[in-house]
Amino acid sequence: MNPNDLMEAFKDVQTPEQASWWPLAWGWWLVILLLLVVVLVVGKYVFQQIKFNAYKKRVIHQLKITSSTQQLAVLLKQLAIHYYGRTQVASLSAEKMHQFWLAQVINHSDKSAKLWQKQELCSLNDLYAQQYSGNAQAEVTAEQQAAAIKLAKQISRKNGARDV
């Protein structure tokens, strides 16, 4: 037998058409739908986080350039009103505001309490002591400014803050 004769026998065999990608099977539509839902949920979460942190970033920038303890206390109170609501914060005096920050952010959990060093807490205490002693126009010390910025950075949904 000649090898060419064997090949001649296969000339009438036709190969099938290649399978088409379209239309997609229902399983692929399900995968596409699930991916779309995941992308939308993650996108919404990222957008909410950006929106939540936008005011905080603005206030932190202002805290960095503040020169008087009164301005510092006002900025911290505005921050508290924004994240914790006017009804809860607006009527608080300087002493009560200090207690509010201690309860809401600093001592909210063991983890957040461990982040604060004694000197930082003393600086924050001094800031509010100046407020209710009548020496509100005093110059801000670097330690007070750093403590206020750290306080602002620690505001999160975990300690009850919400975008009011």
Question: Can you offer a commentary on this structure?
Answer:
- The chain has 164 residues and is an all-alpha fold.
- It has a domain of 107 residues.
- The chain is built from eight helices and no strands.
- The mean pLDDT is 83.
- This is DUF4381 domain-containing protein.
- Keywords: Membrane, Transmembrane, Transmembrane helix.
Question: In short, what is this structure?
Answer:
The chain has 164 residues and is mainly α.
What keyword list fits this structure?
mainly alpha; 0% strand; 164 residues; single chain
Number of helical elements: 8
Name the average pLDDT.
83
| Outline | rod-shaped
The biggest sheet amounts to: none
In helices, the fraction of residues equals 55-70%
Distance between the termini: 90 Å
Task: Look at the helices and sheets and give the structural class.
Answer: mainly alpha
Poorly predicted tracts of residues: none
Write down the Rg: 32 Å
Oligomeric status:
single chain
InterPro entries: DUF4381 (IPR025489)
Protein name: DUF4381 domain-containing protein
Transmembrane segments: 26-47
Keywords: Membrane, Transmembrane, Transmembrane helix
Could you give the topology of this structure?
Elements: H1 3-9, H2 26-65, H3 69-84, H4 86-89, H5 94-106, H6 110-114, H7 118-133, H8 142-153
